Amino acid sequence: MSKHRPAKAQTLALDRLLLQAVLAYRADRMDEAETVCRQIMAVEQRHAPATLLLGMIAGRTGRRTLAIELLRKAVALDPQSVDARNTLAANLQADGNQAEAIALWRQAIRLKPDDAGAHDNLGVACLDERKLPEALACFEEAVALEPDVAAHHYHLGIALQRAGRDIDAATCYSKALRLDADFADAEARLGSVALLQGDPTVANAYFRHAAEQASTAPGKIQVAAVLAEIGQVAVAADCLREATALDPLAADAHARLGSLQQQQGRFDEATASFERVLALQPRNADACLGIVTARKIAPSDQALLDRITSVLTDAVLPEQDRATLHYALGKACDDLSNYEQAMRHFDQANRISAARLKRAGRTIDKKSHAANVDRMIASFTKDLFDRYRSLGSSSELPILIVGMIRSGTTLVEQIVSSHPEVAAGGELRYWGEKGKEQGDAAAGTLGASEAHRLVDGYCRVLRAGASHAAQRVTDKMPTNFFLLGLIHLLLPRARIIHCRRDPADTGLSIYCTPFPRSPDYGHDRGNIVFYYEQYARLMAHWRSVLPADRLFEVDYEALVDDREQMTPRLIDFCGLDWNDECLRHDRNAQVIRTPSAWQARQPVYTRSVARWRHYEPWLGELRRLVRNAP
Fold first, then answer.
1. Which of 1-5, 316-320, 543-547 has the lowest mean pLDDT?
2. pLDDT surpasses 80 at 592
3. Which of 19, 78, 153, 588 is the most exposed place for a label (fewest CB within 10 A)?
4. 259 closest CA partner among 279, 282, 284, 280
5. Is the distance from CB of 123 to CB of 114 less than 8 angstroms?
6. Confidence of residue 1 (pLDDT cuts 50, 70, 90)
7. 129 CB burial (10 A radius; 0-12, 13-18, 19+)
């Protein structure tokens, strides 16, 4: 027998230790489980089950980088292990590496085609990546394999709802509730379907009952997450307050509540919530960022900055937390006019974030992106719009607010939606999920029935969050600029407001802003410049082919310099009578779910105009954007 293989007695002893570790893990005794696993590996360093369990323990205890490292080893030690692949995929997904997670779940399914959980997990990852057809197929397979599991029906319902099949989605949510009467998340989703179907009374009853249904703090936190996702921020916030009452030590509940309070413009309350988080978890990076972004930092805040800086000295701080803290300190230094130090922090944050995106396989494909712009320009011509004039709807409901991110779209929505006849829709994902699939078809093969389905679905989404009195509803998804050809083809009466801002200010703001989901180009100066230049090229085309009475271009600098002149022009373009409330946008109580939540609620100010001049010595490639207007 080889000296590298343990004797039979030793193997039995290791098996007994492994069982002990598994039982400790299941009983949530993580320290004991880890100690026993390390005892096993001291004897047999390449023990695959112990390596897998150590990776699971690391994941459960918040050490995701270590978890991924150990789980990669587990997969290498046992290439046929479905559990190792599934667990590694889950940790990679939580770390933002969707591409590798999807690849691993596909491998797990090839190894074990009847693993319903793997199908379901793959479906969730595909849904996050907007791979809707594959997500639907995965959930349908999971339901077929395990028809009595409520979660499979629930996830299938979400995918169906994304596909515009609301009635089928409601059937799935109802099935999930029949299988699990306490499935409050499914009840909340039923409310979202009722809202889309134009029944707010029934929808609100579902929302309230879902919030009441959860009886524990973790349950209420989960329901609140779903409610917030579907736009029910006030109900979600109430649900989180109930969670903190049930468990005052639930840091996650305080953190989520702080984020929602920021969205609602309740910045003092948000700061108090984030302070509670830090009292419970002094190293919580998101809470540090939350406090810094809830107000303008002053010299009297030095103790706060020292506190954040001290957290950065922790050698085992996760990468993402380190980036978040650098963004927080960069914003604070910017407020304090310490621009050189601010840029150092922004550079650190972007280096970390760019490396994470690269590992996740998320890098901008410049050649492909430029080719897509070429195709849009070649496809959507004046001749195309003339030939397919009969395809379009007569609806004037949408006001699309587009432009580069950080170009003032949130401010414009705040101003326009201050009008009593305008509802704020926020950043709707509708065209991003459905429009891109139709981009090529729209150039000649999009049929009338499909056109009607797309327009009807869009108008229902707009109406879902609006009162019956609303004559217009905004859609403030900035990147809809890429799909204006398809949108105008289907909705020729829709108004489009294009927000423009000094290109260098725009690029710098992208570089200095932490986003919940960063754009693939956002952490590299050269990539930002490339993306901006492609945007400018495409907008020049839309300007040449779209009717002048459908496209209104507003410069951020002109708006903040003379809002009394620019605001009436905006309202007139929207086809509405003047209302003085539009000059009091800072009183607008609508929820803002973007990084501009604080800035957009302030009275109009000019501090952000020509901001790039403060950073001129450190612009690097962003210098190419100086005076490069679209």
1. 1-5
2. no
3. 19
4. 284
5. no
6. very low
7. middle
Distance in angstroms (rounded) separating the CA atoms of residues 443 and 166:
28
In whole angstroms, give the CA distance from residue 337 to residue 340: 9
**What pLDDT sits at residue 93?**
87
Q: How far is the C-alpha of 294 from the C-alpha of 306, rounded, in Å?
A: 18
Q: How far apart are CA 22 and CA 29, in angstroms?
A: 10
**Whole-angstrom Cα distance, residue 56 to residue 248?**
28
Residue-level pLDDT at 2: 47
- Model confidence over 169-196: pLDDT tens digits? 999 999 999 999 989 999 999 999 998 8
Strands 551-555 and 495-500: parallel
C-alpha span between 383 and 385 (Å, rounded): 5
Q: How many CA atoms lie within 13 A of 494 on its CB side?
A: 27
Ramachandran region of residue 564, left (φ > 0), alpha (ψ -120 to 50) or beta? alpha
Residue 337 φ/ψ region, left for φ over 0, alpha for ψ in the -120 to 50 degree band, beta for the rest:
left
Length of the chain, in residues: 630
Name which of 352, 479, 336, 463 is nearest 406 in CA terms: 479
Contact 497, 401 (CB under 8 A): yes
CA angle 9, 15, 17 (to 5 degrees): 105
* Rounded Cα distance, 475 and 472, in Å: 10
The per-residue pLDDT for range 595-623, each reduced to its tens digit, is: 655 565 556 556 678 899 999 999 999 99
Sheet-wide strand order for 472-475 = 422-424, 472-475, 398-403, 495-500, 551-555
Question: DSSP letters of 419-461?
Answer: STTEEE--S--HIIIIIHHHTTGGGTT--HHHHHHHHHHHHHH
The C-alpha atoms of residue 27 and residue 138 are separated, in whole angstroms, by: 32
- What global pTM score does this model have? 0.84
Instruction: Give the C-alpha separation, 290 to 296, whole Å.
Output: 12
Residue 578: left if φ>0, alpha if ψ -120 to 50, beta else—which one?
Answer: beta
Q: Is the per-residue pLDDT at 438 higher than 70? A: no
Q: Give dist(CA 10, CA 257) in Å, integer.
A: 52
